[in-house]
Specification:
single chain; 339 residues; alpha+beta; Alpha-Beta Plaits; 3 domains; five-stranded mixed beta sheet; 17 strands; 21% helix; globular
Length: 339
């Protein structure tokens, strides 16, 4: 028990379970979950449930009894659970170890992944010596080795922007990945606070929601080839060339790009601080990607700003970009003209 909070870790849940099911299970066994569904955090890998969850109970008495409870008497979808003691430190580790969603340019917090196991806080500060670092959160094992990731908070957004330009550089023998992340609730987590468990959920808390497989994917109703279910690569969607032509000339703010990755995270990091809302790959008649993507933005200004990356190199490939925006006159030519 930490911070006066009574948190359990349970396992054995069906993959289709939602938070309200867990609350009902504990209520049926005579235990009160703190805040109802707000006191449940279903763990996941990407957006795939793992059958494991954190559950916060209201009292020490319920916590102690739940650990000793014969859970085989209370099944959920025919399965019974196992309960183990946990705490806010476990919640912090779980949330911080998950690769975060890209954030806007106003963030001061960056997520580092791929650190050498022997890297220390001093090594990280030295790595960002050109930037003013306010705080480094580097989880460690009992052996003293780190877990390969860290959160770094900078003094200003300008410092964070300079630090982000160092992505894919080496620290020791390893290439470090760097991602901007939202400061709320992550910044509170970095400072040691844990909000309601449901604040960190990436799977639905009730049956009125469905998992956002690709972060709000654009899925055209016509000419859809791939609905973007490859969560690991975060493919948002795909259209064939006819569908791409129609999409590019419809109302909106888009850029047609070649030489770009198909991952929304990779595209977001390349275009940062401009952030796309959707990334749609284009496939040929054989159903295979043809090397082009359509990147959609919230405004004409964002789309125009993104095209400043035209001609830059990404993963040894030269990126070529062309603007297709409602506020742009350059929308007459077809997709075939894109080199």
């Amino acid at each position: 028990i930490q911070d006066g909070r009574f948190i359990l870790r349970i396992r054995g849940l069906p993959w289709k379970v939602v938070s309200s099911d867990v609350v009902q299970l504990f209520t049926g066994a005579g235990f009160k979950v703190s805040g109802g569904s707000e006191g449940v955090l279903l763990q996941s890998k990407g957006y795939r449930p793992t059958g494991v969850a954190f559950v916060e109970l209201e009292s020490q008495e319920d916590y102690d009894k739940a650990l000793q409870h014969p859970w085989k008497q209370h099944t959920i979808s025919g399965r019974y659970i196992d309960a183990f003691p946990s705490n806010t430190a476990d919640v912090r580790y779980y949330v911080m170890s998950k690769k975060p969603e890209p954030a806007s340019s106003s963030t001061k917090v960056l997520y580092l992944r791929g650190l050498p196991w022997e890297a220390s806080e001093d090594n990280i500060r030295a790595f960002f010596s050109r930037c003013k670092v306010s705080n480094v959160t580097l989880p460690l094992l009992e052996s003293g080795s780190n877990l390969g990731f860290a959160y770094v908070e900078f003094a200003s957004t300008d410092d964070a922007r300079r630090a982000l330009s160092m992505r894919n550089r080496n620290m020791g023998s390893r290439e470090v990945e760097i991602y901007p992340v939202a400061e709320d609730p992550v910044d509170k987590l970095v400072k040691g606070d844990v909000l309601s468990l449901a604040s960190y959920a990436s799977v639905p808390t009730d049956r009125s929601h469905t998992p956002a497989i690709s972060g709000g994917a654009f899925r055209p109703k016509n000419n859809v080839v791939d609905k973007g279910t490859d969560t690991a690569r975060r493919l948002v969607g795909a259209v064939n060339e006819d569908g791409a032509e129609s999409l590019l000339h419809s109302k909106g703010h888009r850029v047609l790009a070649s030489g770009m990755p198909f991952s929304k995270n990779a595209v977001s990091n390349f275009l940062w601080p401009v952030q796309p809302t959707e990334v749609v790959k284009i496939v040929g008649k054989d159903g295979k990607p043809n090397g082009k993507v359509i990147v959609e933005f919230r405004s004409h200004e964002d789309a125009l700003k993104a095209t400043e990356k035209d001609g830059e190199t990404l993963f040894t490939r030269t990126v070529k970009m062309r603007l297709f925006s409602s506020d742009s006159a350059d929308t007459a030519a077809g997709i075939a003209e894109q080199a």
